[in-house]
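Running this now, will post back.
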Amino acid sequence: MGRGRAKAKQTKVARELKYSSPSTDYDALQRELANGGGGLLSTTPKPVEVDVEGDESDDYDDRWG
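Update: finished.
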């Protein structure tokens, strides 16, 4: 029964996000970019281990060789 109130709230929030123009702190952005980011996107990926010699348990080469 409470679906109408929840939907109205979601519509209100969506409308506010769509039509609002948040202020951007360009100084903070410049500091963040100058420091190398430090956010979620700046994490370096872990290196992938590559088996050069081959593993005896890997039968792919034997079957599809």
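The CA atoms of residues 51 and 57 lie 12 Å apart. More later if anyone needs it.
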